[in-house]
Design brief:
With 133 residues, the protein is α/β, with parallel strands linked by helices. The protein is 50% helix and 11% strand. It is built from seven helices and five strands. A five-stranded parallel beta sheet has the order 3-2-1-4-5. Helix 5 crosses helix 6. The protein is globular, with a radius of gyration of 14 Å. The relative contact order is 0.21.
Amino acid sequence: MIVLDTHALIWWVNGDPYLSGHARAAVEAEQVDETGAILVSAISAWEIGMLVARDRLTLTMSVDHWLATVERIDGVRFVPVDNQAGLESTRLPGDFHKDPADRMIVALARCLNAPLITADDKIRTYQHVQTIW
């Protein structure tokens, strides 16, 4: 089981070379593992919608269709923001920045004890979550 940060999801789905080889291999390993799971916080759907609305991300189809297509990829599952992850995002130990989406994604990975695939240096240097890059 792994959790994808929003940019990692976009890069993986779009086949973007920005996704590191190590990260791509980790996602592919989860995909071929019968018990594997590629988890995405529902907050990523919100982030993607906001990026498109602000013209910071262009997709080849509507956001709704893109997200529905992603949901049909083997092993991918969007995880709703539940009370546990929501509260965990307010209680992250140590020093972590204030971005609410990042906090929710990190909290999900922590609640599930799953590594988080991210290129974000602020997250990768945060010692209270395991990351893959």
